[in-house]
């Protein structure tokens, strides 16, 4: 029996296949019938390009409806989808390509020459291109292919995707996500959020992370619902399109930017069924401001790449600001003592490591059994690295992170990655990268730098030194200089002291 995500989606197709699956604001897009045909053609194209079941297909393209068809076609061909942030530089890409060893790399037409050089260096057999408007070499393989494809059968445990998450130390880790993970999580969301064929979701998220790719697309597909597609989030455009939809999923920055729009009123959202926020903490302040302005309580949920969605505030019931709600159907959650190696349960109300178990939990890190063993316990619980507690009403509250990570506008930034580069720049003795409260991005990436004696590198020097090595969203919004970094007796940099000292930097 085929246990793939696409097979599960097939069980929930709308009776009328002419119903829209995805519509663009100009009226273009794909009905369900067209989606079935196009994803079949993409699957044929991948086979023609030599992609075998189990092969990785690495994709770094701009968001487009066809990129979604490529994702679905990859699953149908039994291959493993490996999406890459479109902001990643060649330095970053060469690691991912070398580590995942995809048989095909799909990139933008503009990047083709560099991609070919990278592919050769990393042993990737083929490169194809896909532009935002159907240009590029991949479409030449897609066009004219049969409208049907015999989907490659997958078991629940077979890989559907690999998504890289940066590590707090050292190398990025490829989270191996199975078809069973995707199916169970999409079903849990359909149940928890009451998604039906009548729903229209405004899709404004990037599609190289689980939020835009799995949460937003798979759950709507699993319910036979429809997507109104836009390339990226623009608050004024999104507000203008709201009358055509009844669901929005976003990161907290979407909601702070919507609040900046005078047109965000009770009337403008009266028809909306649900606003969902996740990927980063939604402040109680934003939750309250949105509720006061519109009368609507945003539904906050909590997830991560390795686990998909874990918890959610209730659809019916109180959505409490500052909490992430209850475990989703099928997900078990416990709080343990982070100081203990063995899982030691903490009493309700006491903050500790959030651990989760369930069919949503990933299969481990690609070719990193030791890393997998460090984070995935023998009994199946995954140590999330998030610190939280369960309050007296049973709601989960996240209070911090044990991992040194910044979340800026919903993107994770690992300080270590920046510090390693900054420390090698001329005139720099050492550095600490921290996240500081930032109205737009939630946390603003900030580099705190100590100059070498007698030297005075400038903010511009540090930024120029990072430019080209790391994606732009990772670059510090500000660089500040200090005489010395505060350290504890063990010599560890006290980042909390730096965060306290500079907490007003973006105020
Ligand atoms: C863009 N920039 C950012 C940024 N996004 N800087 C810091 N943090 C970000 N998130 C920078 C760009 O590099 C550029 O800088 C400048 O801002 C303008 O770029 P832009 O492309 O016009 O930005 P904008 O469209 O305004 O993007 C902001 C955003 C976007 C919030 C709409 O970042 C976004 O869509 N975020 C969603 C991320 C997401 O999907 N996360 C889910 C992860 S999954 P310069 O210097 O080049 O001019 C996950 C699990 C879970 O976490 O639970 O869901
Ligand atoms: P990623 O590794 O990109 O999947 O990011 C996952 C991380 O985002 C989690 O481990 C949390 O730290 C954070 N996160 C996701 N949703 C929320 C939320 N609603 N509140 C606070 N943090 C969140």
UniProtKB/TrEMBL annotation:
Q: Which residues form the AMP-binding enzyme C-terminal domain?
A: 417-492
Question: Where in the numbering of this chain does the AMP-dependent synthetase/ligase domain appear?
Answer: 19-366
Any one Pfam family match given in the protein's UniProt record, by short name? AMP-binding
List the molecular function annotations (GO) for this entry: medium-chain fatty acid-CoA ligase activity
GO BP terms? fatty acid metabolic process
List the Gene3D superfamilies: 3.30.300.30, N-terminal domain of ligase-like
Keywords linked to the UniProt accession: Ligase
Q: Which InterPro entries match?
A: AMP-bd_C (IPR025110), AMP-bd_C_sf (IPR045851), AMP-binding_CS (IPR020845), AMP-dep_synth/lig_dom (IPR000873), ANL_N_sf (IPR042099)
Which PROSITE patterns does the entry link to?
AMP_BINDING
Q: What family does the database annotate?
A: Belongs to the ATP-dependent AMP-binding enzyme family.
What is this protein's record name? Malonyl-CoA/methylmalonyl-CoA synthetase
Please give the organism: Pseudomonas delhiensis
């Amino acid at each position: 029996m085929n246990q793939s995500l696409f097979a599960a989606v097939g069980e929930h197709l709308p009776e009328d296949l002419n119903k829209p699956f995805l519509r663009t604001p100009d009226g273009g897009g794909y009905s369900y019938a067209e989606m079935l045909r196009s994803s079949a053609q993409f699957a044929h194209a991948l086979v023609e390009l030599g992609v075998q079941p189990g092969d990785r297909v690495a994709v770094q393209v701009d968001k487009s409806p066809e990129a979604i068809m490529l994702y679905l076609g990859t699953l149908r061909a039994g291959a493993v989808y490996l999406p890459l942030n479109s902001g990643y530089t060649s330095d970053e890409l060469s690691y991912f390509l070398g580590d995942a060893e995809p048989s095909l790399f799909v990139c933008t037409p503009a990047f083709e020459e560099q991609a070919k050089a990278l592919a050769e260096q990393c042993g990737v057999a083929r490169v194809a291109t896909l532009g935002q408007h159907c240009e590029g070499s991949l479409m030449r393989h897609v066009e004219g292919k049969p409208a049907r494809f015999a989907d490659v059968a997958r078991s629940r445990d077979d890989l559907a995707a690999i998504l890289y998450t940066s590590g707090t130390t050292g190398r990025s880790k490829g989270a191996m996500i199975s078809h069973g993970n995707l199916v169970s999580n999409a079903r849990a969301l359909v149940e928890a959020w009451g998604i039906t064929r009548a729903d229209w979701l405004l899709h404004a998220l990037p599609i190289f992370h689980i939020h835009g790719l799995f949460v937003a697309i798979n759950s709507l597909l699993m319910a036979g619902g429809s997507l109104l597609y836009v390339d990226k989030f623009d608050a004024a455009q999104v507000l203008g399109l709201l009358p055509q939809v009844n669901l929005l999923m976003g990161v907290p920055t979407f909601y702070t930017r919507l609040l900046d729009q005078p047109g965000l009123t009770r009337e403008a959202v009266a028809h909306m069924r649900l606003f969902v926020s996740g990927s980063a903490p939604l402040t109680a302040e934003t939750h309250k401001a949105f509720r006061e302005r519109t009368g609507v309580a945003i539904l906050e949920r909590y997830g991560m790449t390795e686990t998909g969605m874990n918890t959610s505030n209730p659809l019916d019931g109180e959505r409490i600001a500052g909490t992430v709600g209850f475990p989703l159907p099928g997900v078990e959650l416990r709080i343990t003592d982070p100081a203990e190696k063995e899982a030691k349960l903490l009493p309700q109300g006491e903050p500790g490591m959030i651990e989760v178990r369930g069919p949503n939990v990933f299969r481990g890190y690609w070719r990193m059994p030791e890393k997998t063993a460090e984070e995935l316990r023998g009994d199946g619980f995954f140590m999330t690295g998030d610190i939280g507690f369960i309050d007296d009403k049973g709601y989960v509250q996240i209070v911090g992170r044990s991992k040194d990570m910044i979340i800026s506008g919903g993107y994770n930034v690992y300080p270590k990655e920046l510090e390693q580069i900054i420390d090698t720049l001329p005139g720099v003795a050492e550095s600490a990268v921290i996240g500081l409260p930032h109205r737009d991005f939630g946390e603003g990436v900030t580099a705190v730098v100590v100059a070498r004696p007698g030297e005075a590198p400038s903010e511009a020097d540090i930024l120029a030194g990072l430019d080209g090595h790391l994606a732009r969203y990772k670059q510090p919004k500000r660089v500040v200089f200090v005489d010395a970094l505060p350290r504890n007796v063990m010599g560890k940099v006290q980042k909390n002291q730096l965060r306290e000292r500079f907490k007003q930097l973006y105020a």
